[in-house]
Amino acid sequence: MAADRDDGLSAVHPQVRALMEAMAAEGEPAPADLAAERAAYLDATLRLGGAAEPVASAVDLVVPSGEARLPARLYAPQHFPETDGLLVWLHGGGWYVGDIPTFDRVARTLANASGLKVLLVEYRLAPEHHWPVQVEDADAVVGWARSAVGAEQLAIDPARVVLGGDSAGGQLAVVAARHARGDGLPALRALLLAYPALDPSMASESYKLFADGPMLTRADMERCWGFYLDGADPAHPDATPLSATDWDGLPPAWVAVAGQDPLRDDGLALVRVLKDAGMPVESCIFEDMVHGFARWGGVVDAARELLVWLAAGARERA
User: Which of 57, 115, 185, 301 is 20 to 30 A from 107 via CA?
Assistant: First the structure.
């Protein structure tokens, strides 16, 4: 591809470029409403996600969050079905789209690559529910998995729990990990993040560079944050984790970002904050990737590379 190309895709990996050009050529109209948008999000994942990896089992259950009951699915890795280690995964989707079917392939790959069970949970979505409901759900899931009751139901060791999430789920994972430090339950073993959304001010250099994409735009994120916060104070550390000042006691972190993503600098800022606090952290920049690529394993090789890298961190710690 010519270096002087001016369509904004010259720095994007050819596999992603081909995908985006095909999407542009299709010229599909924007979804008419929220239900259609959620359906389109799932449909895109099913088309681009590739074959679902076989696992030893995938069992549906519910996880309590106050009076709510959150749908969840527990995946046992194909070759280690009796493992007592667990990865809790909080899915992305801007806090308003995404569910178990959308992230089923991601969870399967994480389970097999890590050798841990994976718990994928549907926290309550915006705009029907807004902050801090999603935080409360994330806290409840992470606490339940490390409680005697939850660990028994999941057949895991509550001292071998890893927490992770992508995009909006990454924000929830960071907040839940901070809260878990003082809940009296076994400590989390690791924190795994893929292109987390951490700063509603959207003032970073990457938001300026990639305001119009590729893929995710600043306008998209304004809508996501608007749905999620719904007028709440964006400076609260449970909304903007980067505004927090106390980072001691967090588990070792693995943070991956996409180089062609408005959220790139959110993740890199977190890496700096953790390093400055003396916390163990590993980082990886997928320079030619765009936001959300973890769900495109059928057409983008880096999707598996990302999940395997995160899974290695989980396997190392748990």
Answer: 185
- Output the CA angle 168-44-26, nearest 5 degrees: 125
Tokens representing 32 are: 């008419």
Q: How many CB atoms lie within 10 A of CB 231?
A: 8
Task: Report the CATH number of the 14-22+51-317 domain.
Answer: 3.40.50.1820
Query: Residue 3 — φ and ψ, nearest 5°?
Result: -70, -25
117 pLDDT above the threshold of 60 = yes
Q: Please tell me the distance from the alpha carbon of residue 240 to that of residue 198, in angstroms, as a whole number.
A: 6
pLDDT above 90 covers a percentage of the chain that reads 93
**What's the pLDDT at 50?**
96
**H/E element holding 73?**
strand 68-76
Q: Give the domain ranges of the chain.
A: 14-22+51-317
Q: Compute the distance between CA of residue 263 and CA of residue 296 in angstroms, rounded to an integer.
A: 18
Residues with a catalytic annotation lie at: 167, 261, 291
Does the pLDDT at position 83 exceed 70? yes
Residue range 84-94: mean pLDDT, rounded: 98
pLDDT at 29: 75
CB 85 within 8 A of CB 115: yes
